[in-house]
Write a structure and sequence with these properties.
- By secondary structure, the protein is of the alpha+beta class.
- The protein is built from 16 helices and five strands.
- Helix 2 runs antiparallel to helix 4, helix 2 runs parallel beside helix 5 and helix 9 runs antiparallel to helix 11.
- The longest helix is centred in the middle third of the chain and has 62 residues.
- The protein is elongated and about 110 Å long.
Length: 457
């Protein structure tokens, strides 16, 4: 009878947990709007894109800042992959993707809110991740992450304020974890060698040398705790601790084997061991120099690759922009790392800065391109021909540039503070002002696109 009651209670517990999960999904759906994914989209590409966004979320700590919503994003990503492997219909797979993207978006929004309230914890955790605590101290990292998720999950309804003591405690735990990981990373080998020496009774055979090695190790640990960002000081302390650890291990082996030997034999053994230690130190220093050289070369190659990728991105951007305009509407070309859109068909009336209605179609294309490029800086340059005096043309060219900026910023997502206007009057002609055609070419607006966002899809 008691067994049946226990079984019944367990069944109810499982049922309650299942209902809680279903309830969470149902409640979550009420405040999560499914993203729109065209039915004509490529399912394989969309699943990969969802996977990329999930991974980016982990890199941004969204998995711990909005754990409930992010778990749903991961669940839909896994379901989409399974459905793709089972060759289910595009509609089913794309529906998985749409919900996955919706939960990614929701979890990022919640994470931003949580991050704003417990920023010190987020920064401390990032420092621990940078120190590879998840690799050197995985159990400790998982335990503290569990506490973080439990705290962050309380923010998901949007009406919670954590106890400052909880925030301070979590921050200290992650900072301690960072220090512990740095110690493991920098001093792990010296610690291991010292423990081996102790196991081989170094306290009996070489007690004073063992004490020196332990003092050196303790000093290195204290320097890491107090000044871990001082790389030179830390490296010097680590090298000394490593040298002392190798020394105590080597001399302990000599002392162990010295029993029953003559003083001369002991002296020869010590000399041999010292020579081996010197050779090891030289080899280590050589390896460190080679590593430093390789690191510098890798950094240089990474910089070169970054420059090349930026140029390739700009070339792709150039091709896309060129395809939007007819030769009569605009000319698009590169000028170093900048993209120039030279508008030819903005037919301003004489001495006027209002955009004519027949030019709206061209400017709509400009706005579309600028929106897609997401530049961090855009310069709108106004130019005139040489008709009239310099002062009037300068004012006119600036007014026309302002009109184009106003069109781009007031009727679209282009931010006002990202657009700069300049008026050059007739200072920068691209053709002769002696002919009607040349003057028409000089009456133009140039858009200089700088710092294109290379992360756009």
């Amino acid at each position: 009878m008691l067994g049946n009651q226990i079984l019944s209670q367990r069944s109810l517990s499982k049922f309650g947990l299942a209902m809680l999960t279903v309830s969470f999904v149902a409640c979550a759906h009420r405040d999560v709007k499914k993203e729109e994914v065209p039915l004509t989209a490529n399912p394989a590409v969309e699943v990969d894109n969802l996977g990329k966004q999930v991974e980016e979320g982990k890199q941004a700590q969204v998995d711990v800042l909005a754990p409930g919503y992010f778990r749903q994003a991961e669940r839909y990503y896994r379901k989409a992959k399974v459905d793709r492997e089972k060759a289910k219909s595009s509609k089913v797979i794309l529906d998985d993707v749409a919900w996955g993207l919706a939960y990614v978006k929701k979890s990022k929004d919640v994470a931003d809110n949580t991050r704003g309230q417990i920023g010190p914890v987020v920064e401390a955790r990032q420092a621990a991740l940078n120190a590879e605590a998840n690799q050197y101290l995985p159990k400790e990292m998982a335990r503290i992450d569990g506490r973080f998720r439990r705290l962050a999950s309380k923010y998901e309804p949007g009406n919670y304020a954590a106890d400052p003591e909880d925030i301070d405690q979590l921050q200290r735990q992650y900072l301690d974890l960072e220090v512990g990981a740095v110690k493991k990373q920098k001093l792990g080998q010296a610690m291991s060698l010292l423990e081996k020496a102790k196991d081989r009774r170094a306290a009996r055979y070489v007690p004073s040398i063992l004490q020196q090695a332990e003092t050196s190790l303790l000093s290195a640990e204290r320097i890491i705790e107090a000044d871990r960002n001082n790389q030179d000081r830390v490296q010097q302390a680590v090298e000394e601790a490593s040298r002392q650890a190798r020394r105590v291990y080597a001399l302990n082996e000599v002392a162990r084997s010295a029993e029953g030997k003559s003083p001369e034999e002991i002296a020869v053994a010590l000399e041999k061991r010292q020579r081996e230690l010197d050779e090891q130190d030289q080899a280590l220093q050589s390896t460190q120099r080679e590593l430093a050289t390789a690191t510098a070369q890798a950094s240089e190659l990474a910089n070169e690759r970054g420059v090349l990728e930026k140029r390739q991105e700009l070339d792709r951007t150039l091709e896309q922009a060129q395809a939007e305009f007819s030769p009569e509407e605009a000319e698009v070309f590169r000028q170093g790392d900048r993209l120039i859109i030279r508008l030819k068909s903005i037919a301003f009336s004489t001495n006027r800065a209002e955009i004519p209605s027949q030019s709206m179609r061209t400017l709509e294309k400009v706005r579309k391109i600028v929106t897609e490029l997401e530049p961090s800086h855009l310069v709108v340059e106004g130019h005139t021909d040489s008709t009239g005096d310099a002062r009037t043309n300068m004012k006119l060219s600036l007014a026309r540039a302002k009109s184009v900026k106003e069109f781009l910023t007031t009727q679209g997502p282009v931010q006002d503070n990202a657009v700069e206007v300049k008026g050059y009057g007739y200072q920068r002609p691209i053709a002769t002002n002696k002919t009607r055609a040349g003057r028409a070419a000089n009456r133009r607006v140039d858009l200089v696109v700088e710092q294109v966002n290379s992360s756009r899809q």
